Amino acid sequence: MTKHSIEILLERVASWPEEAQDEFVKSLAEIERKHAGVYRLNDEERAAVRRGLADMRAGRLASDEAVASLFSRYGA
């Protein structure tokens, strides 16, 4: 989409009902967060990271051989 196309779309948005404009703004904010913002972990993701770090600190890591075996088994 060119800059001109974006300008045309923004002009048209001004004539939309307020509810549609609100939806448009929320959609753009979400797109901006996705592409330019800092990703925020949710509680489940944060807990998974903490478990992984605890496993790492406790030395519960797969050996290089185990990882290589897994990759060769699944063709990665």
Q: What would your notes on this structure say?
A:
The chain has 76 residues and is mostly helical. The protein has one domain (3-74). It is 74% helix and 0% strand. It is built from 4 helices and no strands. The protein has helices spanning 3-13, 18-36, 43-57, 64-74. The longest helix is centred in the middle third of the chain and has 19 residues, at 18-36.
Give the helix/strand layout.
Elements: H1 3-13, H2 18-36, H3 43-57, H4 64-74
How is this structure best summarized?
This protein is an all-alpha fold. It contains four helices and no strands. The protein has one domain (3-74).
Number of helices: 4
**Main sheet summary:** none
Indicate how many domains the architecture comprises: 1
Give the overall average pLDDT. 90
SSE run: HHHH
Class derived from helix and strand content: mainly alpha
Please give the share of residues in helix. Answer: over 70%
Q: Count the strands?
A: 0
Low-pLDDT runs: none
- The proportion of residues in beta strands is under 5%
Radius of gyration: 23 Å
Overall form:
elongated
Termini Cα gap: 36 Å
